[in-house]
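Changelog excerpt

This revision adds worked examples to the README so contributors can see how folded entries look when concatenated. The first example is reproduced verbatim below.
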Amino acid sequence: MNPVPLDIGFFYKLPDPPNFEVVDSSLYCIPSTATKSVSDTDDAENVPFESKAEFFKFIDESVIGVHKPFHGAFGDRKVVYCDYIASGRSLFFLENFIYNEVLPHYGNTHTTTSITSLQTTLFRHEAKDIVRNAVRASDYDAVFFVGSGCTGAVHKLIHNLHMTKPPIVIVGPFEHHSNMLPWRHMAAKITRLKTDITGNVSLDHLKQVLEEESKLAQEQDCDLIVCLAAASNVTGILLDVNVFSALVHRHGGLIFWDYATAAPYVDIDMNPVITGPDRDYVYKDAIYFSMHKFVGGVQTPGVLVAKRVLFKAGETHPDGCGGGSVCFVRREAQVYLQDVEEREEGGTPAIVESIRAGLVMQLKQAVTSEAITAREEVMVKRAWSRLKGVENLLILGGDRAPRLPIFSIVVRHAYPLVNGSGATPSNEAPQLSPEAAAPTQPGKSCLFLHHAFVAALLNDLFGVQCRAGCACAGPYAMDLLGIDEALAKLYEGALVKSGVGTCRISRFFDASAREVLRPGFTRFSIPFFMSDEEADFVFDAVRFVATYGWAFLPLYTYEATTGEWHHRNYDAGEDRQWLGHIQYSKQGMVWRRGKAKSRGPLPKSYKECLMTANAELKKAIEFVKSAPVSPVPDDTASFDEDSQKLRWFLLPCEAAAQMRGEVGQLAVPTGPRSPWHPDAAPLRASDVDKEGEKATVKTLDPGNGQPTYKSNASPSESPMLKLPAESTKVYSGGLSVDDGFSSLNPQTLTQMSQVDSSTCLRTKTVSTLSAVNEPVPEQRNNHCVLARQDFHVAADSHNFMEPEEEKQVEMLDDDELQEVISNLNGLYMPPKPSKTQSLIRSLKLDHSLWKRPIKQLYKPFLTAIKKI
């Protein structure tokens, strides 16, 4: 099946729409983003957008749920969605078109005799043709709507390859699990490419591998397949697809491109037309991408476009055989259709989803790939401008390769000295002492903020929606984080041992649960239609968390079995909506919404939101420093010996101890050293200021050694400097309060002061680590060089311990819980929490684990097992 230069044939062209000027017709439009009706409009009113910026604004304002307020741990916030690389969001005008034009005519496909089926079939065929033309597919290419994303597309492609021998497969370093794992199970040999000095895929390494593997493929008479991602979903780094395609084809290989990350933002061309010696080799054998990653693409299928010659296996056994895929079926045999697109889409397809996919692709074509690419380049430059100079912030992938505005970050932490000399005025930003501002050389003594904590804090403080983990690109994540194969095996052993993937109920202090140890990063992206103001707010939020985020750790707790982090005094489940609450009556469909209490007013602007975060920082520090004893339980010794060696993140009790100057009083006073370190350095501040940008950079005042914020914005425009002079209120725990108000619970604080530190869990062996200030040689690329930070404190504080009079919730009783646990596969856990003082937790958090949903979910299970 080795490829040869192809005559790419004729491109499929959409049929011309009828000329409505010569027939009786009306022009319709959707007049607003908040209506589900259409109205007549006049041709004279159908004026195009004056600029792409106006088009972008229209898209931004049409996102369903854009800036939706929610009740958060620090008060009300607006949603700022920065997770489009995971999934897009719905658009009013597309959903309104489906509501008004598609659904009223809906009928099943596979027939054209009824008006509903005819119109639905035509809609779906046209949607596929829109996609076909958008990717410049020729008559030699087949287009499929597959499953819900790339995973289904890859499996359909593999099934149809009809390979008599296992192929030799080469995969790129960026590959998503969906473009890597399926090949592992079918390849005779699989080779993973390296990256070059810029962080991009090494073309030289690919040449070397192709020369070796093409000879081996000829000897074994098997196919050579190369699978590459057009863009990394972790770093956004872009590949020159034509160069790589030509190189693979010159060595007789097949090239399959994963466009899942790149498709919404770049031009896709199955059969590029270029000049030069590579003109016959730059075609693509197959591409696949997920339409749900496009803006407006919620509930859309995946797309597979591939050369028809690859679908030999389906002639005898289609991957999707079923109704609609056959020409004739008799009692003992069947004859499948010859057309590969019809043959491989057996059964009722995702009809409305496919039509929506066509609408989404049509929107991208209307905006144009050129406009999107230009806007994305501006956003990347803007990010470099505003994020440089933050010593604690590591942006994985660097800034040397062309990329999309996708940023995966790691926030590191050295042992800062907390200045106890007094509080700063409530309207000023916390200042770093000269000692703390001086760069240290922590080397491998640094830890990191847990990626899930960073994501939670961005959500709680700023409403920024991002994602924490490895982005389903495990090997690439390990490359970026500096985790070699030996260390990866240790993490694998720890996570598998902890019961990952098993069904079980586990409590917070399950000593064998180590999911929280899983390394990762925090990823956010900036969509092309986001305004400059909103993008700058996101960058400022990231700067704030990277610089001051560690000080919020004492307010948070983590779940060892899931790796999730939550504010100690906030239960996100209070706002949860339930399908089970839906009822039907004469009023129609009726449901209930929970009435969660607001913890503070909604900031009126992005600048005010940043100021609020600044005030919350001061209260968080004051809460920890003003307590007679540390209000955070010491759980440094709750990790067993193996876990202690693998722990890479700062604990809440360690952050509190550092702020109080009590590190030596911890059960494990010196803390661990992170076993891994990203091979990355903070972005330099020397070239931050770009023309036309309002970059904010931390610099040191030569007069007093204090850091200042250099900005092209005026002082009144800089949200990081101070609260408005007329403001007389600050925010405590999200509540708007007077300056003299304190939400600290004295009774709880007194109880906490009686905690005996000797009751802390301890392991038999605790490795002795170097002292905090021990000098360590500078590491390669200065990837752990950061400025130690020092905070003055403010006058207000947080209360994250609840009174004992908690509202009673419906829970499984002990007998029911015992019965559930005993019939599940997994480690038995006692129904009641341990009384160990070192692991004391908020009653509210404790109850939140066992609220009504547990009883609702497990009652059927209890009934079933009683009958056994």
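The second example, added in the same revision:
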Amino acid sequence: MTRITAPELSPSPPDSPPPARRSPALATPPSRRRPSPSPSLALTPSSASTSATSSRPRPRPSMLMPEMDLGYEVTHISLNTDVSSLLLAGSHNINVLHVHERVSEDGDTIICRTAPVASQILPTNNDGIKVLQTSWHPFSSSHFGVLTSDAVFRLFDLSFDLEQPEQEFYLQPILPGRCQNASSICPVAFSYGSDHLWDRFSVFILFSDGSIFVLCPVVPFGCDYSKKHIEEIYEDVNTFGLKSSNPNVVTNSHLAIAWLEATFPELLRQSADSSTLMSRARAYAPVDDSLTLQGPLCRVCEENNELEGKSSSCEGKAVGFVYSSVGKDSVLVTAWGSGQLQIDALADEIQPQWSIGVPTRLDVDSHGRIKSVAMICDSNPQDSSALRSHRSSSMGSNVKSNTEAVWMGHSPPLLRLSIVDLALPKTSNGSSLSLFLDPLVPERFYCAHGGGLDMVTLHFLPFSYPEMASTPPSVHPVLTTGNSDTSSPFLSGFVAIADAYGHVQLVGITYTGECFVVEMKGWKEPTPLQLDICSKDIKDVESSTTGMISKELLAGPDPPILPSSTSLRSLTPDSIEGKSTLHHYIKVFHEHYVEYGHKVFIELKEHEDYVKTEIEDKQKRLQAVKQSLLSIEAKDEEINRRVDRASKVYDLLEKRIESFKMLPAANKKPLSQAELEFKSQLDRFADVELDALRTSIAALSARMKRFAQPSLGSGAAGAGMAPWQAPKAGRGHVSESQMSLMKSSLERLSLLNEENNQKLRVIETELKNKEQQ
């Protein structure tokens, strides 16, 4: 295992409290009603955490093995919140390994009980329906969601049944007959909402063309939620919904209140016991209504910035998705195969939305209790147009109308924060990117790709810190592989672990079987200040030692002041008075210069060490300068040779360019704007649409085979219903005529696909011939 220290980081946004709730203004996005966030712990890497981790007791390592051969390659491993179950997901299969239910032990190898998931739904021959993503629900340790290529989101209950899903949502992002792009009906990934109002009951789903849809509300049966949060939502609905004069607002509010009261019956009980902190969700689903697939979420864009919004769109197809709640902001990050990260924020609150008159299929037991739910979730085609018209008409609206807009039943718009280009090499199949959240810092996430591991930190949060300037996110490469092929993923597993010391450890496993650990240290530990202290000491020394010898000593001794007496001129040296006077002045001059010499001696004695140190330092600097001069002289010849070589290469390139100008193809005309647009459409059709079309055909074929198999019960059993239950209303069972019609439609679709492929080959041939002319 390799232990690595991460690079320097920039600080996260300041921990200033967010502003209070207020109404939106015209030039600024509406303020989201969210409680003040707790100060986030900003992280910087350090090697000092190595000593902390080395002092902790290390448990005995053990290896968990399933009790049976899975028969497929595991591509995703996920552990639930109470560390009791492990999801082992492949491209077409899912198994659950129970950590504490051990079959046998052989030394450090532990055999654990393993159970398959949805073996009747997922094919056993690794053909047809693919598992796109599996993830545990953040508010339940026994529920996990599965998104498959047949555009179905299923929620399974580990404690009840692993074969039949507890809740099944058939996603219909495009109404039948209106689909123009196959990528718009192919889901890619999903992400659960976080702990904020209706976000905790929401599931965000990303499709291949980059469109984002929302399912709300989706609640696992028997899941515990904070009673305080449920009451906050209930009060919010009654405050902003029921008192409105708009009938649409009142209708949506009544539906939301009915769902809350049926799912959480404690809201109707006026209990004086305040010790209950959690509320358990009851199994409930409206009989005559189904959830609406809200979306696609459109982006807030002014009219004069319309062209700018179109030009800033990402290329390729969407490959990854993650949701993060940062203070008052709900951030959505989309990863594209072109190596770009699209960062958006919800500009409004998410609200529940139902399709009136579309019944839900329920599976109930003999006591009338709901066992499972299945519903078809259609999108609202009038959602986007209605939202645009409402936004344009409410530009000058007051606070009340802006508050009522939350309950109009429209999908929340997105506010574009930034587009981060990771500058990955372009490949034919696109890059494979995976997104992971930081467990301690919500405004930080990691992106793993074929070129390594990057860390992205957000510095601009429009609702949490509106006073901050719009600063682009910072990208720090944590690991670099130097691999130019980014189409294949670099990591087979990655997890960010937070411990009780406020540290984060990034643990990853490469496809070559190597394990690495990147340790991160929190800023709560003081940063070493040796450099500042040393620089301060040097300044103090320089200020105290102004010079080697004082100016008084350098100026010399002060001459004695002789009296201006004229009697001295009359004295002779041979006389007694002259000798006495001469002896007196010799004594005075001797005492004066002896005192000066003594001062000079003391001064030189005190500065002996300083002068010695200065001379040694000057000698070292002189030697360093000489070495630098020698190295520069040695490099000068190499630089001259490289310049001469570059000049020769430049001359050679000029000659080659002149020779290329003589070729026949040099005079060809560039493609026109229409031809360029047509070529880009062909490239998109070849890169994105064909893959999406093949995936859709494979999923439909697998679903048709599953429904065509003879079963003991009625056709409703294949849809997750009890054999004895008949549908109440709405869509009926698949008859033989409908089955034959579906088969013929699939055959026509296959023929159409072959014809399109032939036309595409002809067009490519014509384009190549035209380019060669």
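Reviewer comment on example two: The CA atoms of residues 254 and 373 lie 22 Å apart. The mean pLDDT is 74.
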